């Protein structure tokens, strides 16, 4: 077959087939189209204003590595006027984060961005290794997910940033839409397609890669020669999510637009007004000050369960009742430092930025 | 180490998990031993039938009167007749049986005992009940025509009218003329090679039969999913128009809880999020011009024609349908699998396999899916009605698409210079129908018949052209503006 010209510039030779549209395009047009779509996503949602301090949730994996590169590129090209930071969470899983944190440290040097690494151990007094040794592999993702979300907010608060951007891509969001329909999580279904979420007291959190295909993110890293570590979490047994992921991959193979079509579906409906009225109002956790739908936030409940040896207290009703039956929490219970989302430095969490500007 | 011999070691066998929660007695009558477990609850055979009948009536009867009035059945007065969409599958076989017992033969066992003989529920609800079957066998070579078998099965029920259709009727102007007492046209074509989907008139020299037009249309679609969902959409529209033709105010379909969950997830995966509500229940107003939904709601007049589509088995799972058919001795013809390898790449088939598999390990999944979907509503305004599938179009979808997936570096670049720029179909389609016609895959659909070739200009189904002749901006103002004006003022013009 003769070489085909790029479907976008009609000049250069096409060297790749875009996973998202099936168009055959050249390398430069791929960079342009990928970056412009992310720029469109950012400007359409009005995510930033000049002078914003923005932390990039950096895990060292493909999504956040490419996100750091693209954010830096777009910030320079379109003069967003952002002050960018890297924020990493160390879950404390032996062998899982070691290599990827090295990638993050290298990004810090390359892009000259300050980096903050916050560990579960530092914040909660528990590493994921220690948690798994108590709760087993089942349900451990609940701990990790809840703890990471709060750790990111606390790390961002320590950096005094206004905004956290994460590398969630279109595949992640499509998968979450399907998952939330299948498990009936109406509250999350309503907000999982939002590009930016913000509670009253929480830091803004956005997903600029919301419409970027996972395959294109890898393709971008490949052509830009960005290196990252692809490590499967050794504790990841979430069978239900695994089913949903495999299903989504099948759908994508059948028709690549399926990912964007699912996101479109998720954006095209909303939770009915009468159902929304019955949902719990958000409040702040009485123990740690973080946003919560109950008196105690999920992280505090999980931590209390861990400390008191009833790890499932926040997962099953039976375990919760058992915990309650044993009386109130002892006074010397280890707790999470009180959360202060204001721009004043958090005394419980000193800001130590790793090797910034060195 | 254990040798795992269960006859010697009782521990070697995995303890079998009980299928029911507490007792094996029926949870309803609490006396008989159970015969079936429905999501952990045990029912005996005698209690099972009233349970399914109750679920059936509960899903149908509150929507029989023009104004939904809650789950009462004191006076069921539909505006018109009833049409049953029949596919030959398990769900529609059970549906036909229930409709026949409850509303045609007036089987006493299907009615609650209280209320006495004079209770209004003993009167017939619909004056006429018709059954429509759409045969698709002509698409695939070598597929068996099951119309005679279906006709025989329907004939076993007294008082039902049988209406056999063929899928190619969707491209048959004479079918349209019969059904609507107005001439039908299939002279409007669309260019499927361009994402703008430019419209053009099909030259009258190309005199294709309806079947040829249908097969060319299907062969020109870009993916297996597109073909399969188009066939389903054509069947749906044929049923709707037949309902109109038979004066039916209600069209009932045999989607069970399981198949409804499949179609909801499959719809979401094809971008039908805006139409989740319609997927469960919808009302079609054929005479309404496409306009914003808020104005449409206000205009529900008395004399306006409409067809309400209801899925009365939406709370009855696949397993319960099977038990009903088995214990009632129903003959299930079954839907013949299409002899086409493309099904493996069809999103509908993939979803079906996925949900059926999930249902085994997580039996509550299907009802959770359906329940979740009842809690969501379409977001934002509708900008019109899709000319292909007759469902609401979400406003601004074309802009959304072009922003999310850039397809050209400069505006207007996508238009091939050789292509004559005519009116475009794209803005008259819902997101899912536009995706169906344009979204490609690196693995194109395998041909269903080697003798059918693709075409760059394919004729559109017979219900599309009449909608365009009503849309002034597309044809009349462009092509016959002066002439039309002259006709209007002719009587006032003096001879020159």
Automatic annotation (TrEMBL), chain A:
<feature type="binding site">
    <location>
        <position position="89"/>
    </location>
    <ligand>
        <name>ATP</name>
    </ligand>
</feature>
<feature type="domain" description="Cytoplasmic tRNA 2-thiolation protein 1 C-terminal">
    <location>
        <begin position="283"/>
        <end position="312"/>
    </location>
</feature>
<dbReference type="GO" id="GO:0016779">
    <property type="term" value="F:nucleotidyltransferase activity"/>
</dbReference>
<comment type="similarity">
    <text>Belongs to the TtcA family. CTU1/NCS6/ATPBD3 subfamily.</text>
</comment>
<dbReference type="GO" id="GO:0000049">
    <property type="term" value="F:tRNA binding"/>
</dbReference>
<dbReference type="InterPro" id="IPR014729">
    <property type="entry name" value="Rossmann-like_a/b/a_fold"/>
</dbReference>
<dbReference type="Pfam" id="PF01171">
    <property type="entry name" value="ATP_bind_3"/>
</dbReference>
<feature type="binding site">
    <location>
        <begin position="57"/>
        <end position="59"/>
    </location>
    <ligand>
        <name>ATP</name>
    </ligand>
</feature>
<feature type="domain" description="tRNA(Ile)-lysidine/2-thiocytidine synthase N-terminal">
    <location>
        <begin position="54"/>
        <end position="232"/>
    </location>
</feature>
<feature type="binding site">
    <location>
        <position position="172"/>
    </location>
    <ligand>
        <name>ATP</name>
    </ligand>
</feature>
<dbReference type="InterPro" id="IPR056369">
    <property type="entry name" value="CTU1-like_ATP-bd"/>
</dbReference>
<keyword id="KW-0808">Transferase</keyword>
<feature type="binding site">
    <location>
        <position position="63"/>
    </location>
    <ligand>
        <name>ATP</name>
    </ligand>
</feature>
<dbReference type="GO" id="GO:0005524">
    <property type="term" value="F:ATP binding"/>
</dbReference>
<keyword id="KW-0067">ATP-binding</keyword>
<dbReference type="InterPro" id="IPR032442">
    <property type="entry name" value="CTU1_C"/>
</dbReference>
<keyword id="KW-0820">tRNA-binding</keyword>
<dbReference type="InterPro" id="IPR035107">
    <property type="entry name" value="tRNA_thiolation_TtcA_Ctu1"/>
</dbReference>
<keyword id="KW-0819">tRNA processing</keyword>
<keyword id="KW-0963">Cytoplasm</keyword>
<keyword id="KW-0547">Nucleotide-binding</keyword>
<keyword id="KW-0694">RNA-binding</keyword>
From TrEMBL, chain B:
<dbReference type="Pfam" id="PF10288">
    <property type="entry name" value="CTU2"/>
</dbReference>
<dbReference type="GO" id="GO:0016779">
    <property type="term" value="F:nucleotidyltransferase activity"/>
</dbReference>
<dbReference type="GO" id="GO:0032447">
    <property type="term" value="P:protein urmylation"/>
</dbReference>
<dbReference type="GO" id="GO:0000049">
    <property type="term" value="F:tRNA binding"/>
</dbReference>
<keyword id="KW-0963">Cytoplasm</keyword>
<dbReference type="InterPro" id="IPR019407">
    <property type="entry name" value="CTU2"/>
</dbReference>
<dbReference type="GO" id="GO:0002143">
    <property type="term" value="P:tRNA wobble position uridine thiolation"/>
</dbReference>
<keyword id="KW-0819">tRNA processing</keyword>
<protein>
    <recommendedName>
        <fullName>Cytoplasmic tRNA 2-thiolation protein 2</fullName>
    </recommendedName>
</protein>
<comment type="similarity">
    <text>Belongs to the CTU2/NCS2 family.</text>
</comment>
<comment type="function">
    <text>Plays a central role in 2-thiolation of mcm(5)S(2)U at tRNA wobble positions of tRNA(Lys), tRNA(Glu) and tRNA(Gln). May act by forming a heterodimer with NCS6 that ligates sulfur from thiocarboxylated URM1 onto the uridine of tRNAs at wobble position. Prior mcm(5) tRNA modification by the elongator complex is required for 2-thiolation. May also be involved in protein urmylation.</text>
</comment>
<dbReference type="GO" id="GO:0016783">
    <property type="term" value="F:sulfurtransferase activity"/>
</dbReference>
<dbReference type="GO" id="GO:0005829">
    <property type="term" value="C:cytosol"/>
</dbReference>
<comment type="pathway">
    <text>tRNA modification; 5-methoxycarbonylmethyl-2-thiouridine-tRNA biosynthesis.</text>
</comment>
<feature type="region of interest" description="Disordered">
    <location>
        <begin position="282"/>
        <end position="304"/>
    </location>
</feature>
<dbReference type="InterPro" id="IPR014729">
    <property type="entry name" value="Rossmann-like_a/b/a_fold"/>
</dbReference>
